[in-house]
Amino acid sequence: MLRLLDFVVDALIPQDCFLCGAPAAGRAICTACEAELPGAPAQACPCCAVPVASGGRCGECLQHPPAFDSTVALFAFAFPVDRMVHALKYRHRLGLADYFAAVALRRGLPPDIDMVLPMPLHPARLAERGFNQSVEIARPLARALGVGLELSALKRVRNIPTQSGLSREERQRNVRGAFDSATDLRGRRVLVLDDVMTTGATLGEAARILKRRGAERVDNLVIARTPPPG
Ligand SMILES: [Zn+2]
Ligand SMILES: [Zn+2]
Fold first, then answer.
1. Rounded to the nearest whole angstrom, what is the distance from the C-alpha of residue 224 to the centroid of ligand 1?
2. How far is CA 137 from CA 50, 60, 177, 193, in A?
3. Half-sphere exposure of residue 6, counting CA atoms within 13 Å on the CB side?
4. What pLDDT is stored for residue 39 in this prediction?
């Protein structure tokens, strides 16, 4: 009951800055706090968004090209972006979804996208949590881009056990069979939206399935990218 009340209050009352509490003119994050957010690296691999010393793909993407074509990460997954993602996910701070969508539009996205496809949750997890944070970010984004919001082309059919501590081969095995698709995507250019990209194995498997259905391009937009291991 309290959680429901929280949700209703959050939805009805214009929020001050989520981080410092200062008035933010209807935005989730004030200008001063925004300037302090941990940005994406100045030079990032265009394919998987990890920091690189010079332009071009990182060694990992050169050696083992993932099924997706590119990744834009808005932020590094560090304080306080981790708190913002958590608040959207578990406390339904929907103003943050609009905020992330606005940052993505300012940042620039791959051209000629046909659809925005939020990373699906497993139905059991969706039922437990009540909403999919990626859908909430993708919705205003698709509207602003004037493209479709695609909610049925990719289905999560299996939950993915934790990926931490696994080797690349083990992670790939771990995500096999996580998704299914029965949609004809021939010639379509898909923007997949996910909140946090850690190893890229889940996004890689999603892209593999979308391309198997004929997708011409699969580009990723992630709110935050964790630094590469080691
Ligand atoms: Zn602030
Ligand atoms: Zn890379």
1. 19
2. 22, 29, 26, 8
3. 10
4. 94
Distance 16 CA to ligand 1 centre (A): 8
CATH of 38-225, one of 3.40.50.2300, 3.40.50.450, 3.40.50.2020, 3.40.50.300: 3.40.50.2020
State yes or no: pLDDT of 216 exceeds 70: yes
Q: Tens digit of pLDDT for each residue in 42-89?
A: 899 999 999 999 889 999 999 999 999 999 999 999 999 999 999 999
CA of 79 to the centre of ligand 1 (A): 14
- Residue 74, both tokens: 């808005």
Parse the chain into domains and list their residue ranges.
Answer: 1-36, 38-225
- Please give the average per-residue pLDDT across 113-140, as a whole number: 94
Name 196's bridge partners: 224
CA of 156 to the centre of ligand 1 (A): 36
Residue environment code for 88-123, b if the CB has 16+ CB neighbours within 10 A, otherwise e:
bbeebbbbbbbbbbbbbeeeebeeebbbbbbbbbee
User: What pLDDT score does 14 carry?
Assistant: 61
Q: Angle at Cα 223 formed by Cα 220 and Cα 227, nearest 5°?
A: 90
pLDDT-based confidence at residue 26 (cuts at 50, 70, 90): confident
